[in-house]
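Appendix B.2, paired examples.
Example (i):
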Amino acid sequence: MKLFTTPGTCSLACTIALHEAGSAFTLERADIRAKTTASGGDFMAINPKGAVPALEFAPGEVLTEGAAIMQYIADSKGGGGVVPATGTIERARMQEAMHFIGAELHKAYGPLFNPAITPEAKAAQLKVIDTKLTWLESRLADGRAYLTGADFTLADSYLFTITNWSQPMGHSLADFPMVEALRGRVAARPAVQAAMQAEAAL
């Protein structure tokens, strides 16, 4: 498998999934502005959406959208210990968390990447992010270690990846100590450390 990725983007969550699953894979950097790949390819020919991540899992066969890629990677390895079994409420809870992160939190960070954003608009958008994080903080208030309970799942690595954007955006997570603690547990995982090192080397 080959994952087309851009360091600093949401594709880190897919790189983490590959390391968690112990999959055989290669990474190739994609320039999402120039729409080219590190090997000189046309990235639009790989993913006409022009976005990362994109997983080539067989010659000419490409899967896009991070949540789908993460679950495919884990399922191809029998769950890899990071996804509950299909058809269980535990699997549905993980998907519930992943959909919330994708549709609400990930989307909320998006406007901050616009270089033309005004200080007023940025302040308003940070409040939107804080609202989403407040809900996630409430999910952890019962003492659970991870978003869906005692066990790490892909939803936790997705949350970790997206909230990595707070620091460079000048956004403090100090008001969300349980989210911060979860981030620390995720960051300590060997697969997460390996994924971050692999992307940093691209």
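Example (ii):
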Amino acid sequence: MNVGIMYAGSNIDELTAYCRKIGVSHVCLSTASTPRLDKDGVPDVESLRGLNERLAKAHLTLAGMIISGSPSREGWLGLPEAQGEIARLRRVIASLGEADVGTALLFVISERPWTPDRRAEAKHWRRYVASYRRVIEQAEASKVRLANHAGYYAHEWVRGARGLNELLRAVPSSYNGVNYCTGFYMAGDDPYEAIELFRGKIFLVHLRDFKRRGELFDETPLGTGEIDFPRVLKLLKTAGYDGVLLPEHFGPAKPGEDLQAQAVQYVQKLLD
């Protein structure tokens, strides 16, 4: 396993200097970081290849890309006013595949359609799955593994480990996987059991820490909250995960304090 960082900017020189400063060689970028995008925000293939080449020359590994602009609830439901959203997502995945980007993080977070009718809710879910199946078909054709990131709150459709597991079961595919996040804890899940649940399907990992405050959670620097990170890393290793670890959501920083660098150092010490 390697420690990496997420970067949403487009200044690769700035990114390179920062990675050298904090001792990181793996990065996860947003598709919006691509120098050339079309009018729908779809990355240009040659531009993506050039970006990857620049990273390689700087001795940085592109561990994956975060898909910017996930479909809305209406898009997942295939409603007329959002017909183009799934098609746009398929085009993004196709571009990533042509540029040999093998892993993409997709936020499958959208508001659940409210209805007191269970039959209507089941119908909504079937439409969601139908749209998602089209996405996975493109991922398979393009050989891009989708690391799906769930939501944490009751009003969100794909919520926590249970919601992600339903999505994996509904559309079985070797390209349909998860972005494991210790934030599963916020959805009421056991973050340690979730690693075993998704054994073999974890494509990316987010590490974040927090302390419970009533029904809410306060973000804290890694290692200062309620998540047992030595246990998490041990379980990930046992489950066969050998990818990148991406610390995030570090809590409020004091002036001049780089909590991301501290998080990287903390995780690297655990790995060592």
